[in-house]
Amino acid sequence: MEDYRLTAVYKKEDAIISLYEDDDHDFIYISDSRDRTWMKVPEWDYDIDEYDFMYLEDGYDIFYMSMETHTDFWNLINLYYDEYDHINGMQKYFDYCIENQITCDLLETLFHEEIPDIYEYKYSNEEVMQR
Fold first, then answer.
1. What is the rounded CA–CA span in Å between residue 84 and residue 77?
2. Which end of the chain is more exposed for a tag (fewer CB within 10 A), N or C?
3. In this structure, how many other beta carbons lie within 10 angstroms of the beta carbon of residue 58?
4. Tens of pLDDT along 6-38?
5. Which of helix, strand or coil describes residue 61?
6. Distance between CA atoms of 125 and 13, rounded to whole angstroms?
């Protein structure tokens, strides 16, 4: 029997979307409370822009996100921020991190690895959005 780890929960007034990862990190499982469905996405095909940032743009709020997931997001944003299409969703993620005092220093302390400071992208994207 395989074990799953809850990675994130997104919530809006009438729906909850939960994301789980299997022990082998092969798949992300997405549960949607509206129609009680599950979607299985291979890890190599999972894109935080097309899922997480899109959920945030669609009116969902982060209800829960593991610190491991934040670490993954910070590293991915550092590598691919200029390729993301859901800029408003990414900005909402930045706002959540600021509001909840999630910083590269905190993540580095928790995981003992170097984490890039992605807040510079928040402000550079705000300038782009104002144009």
1. 9
2. N
3. 13
4. 999 999 998 999 999 987 778 899 998 988 889
5. strand
6. 28
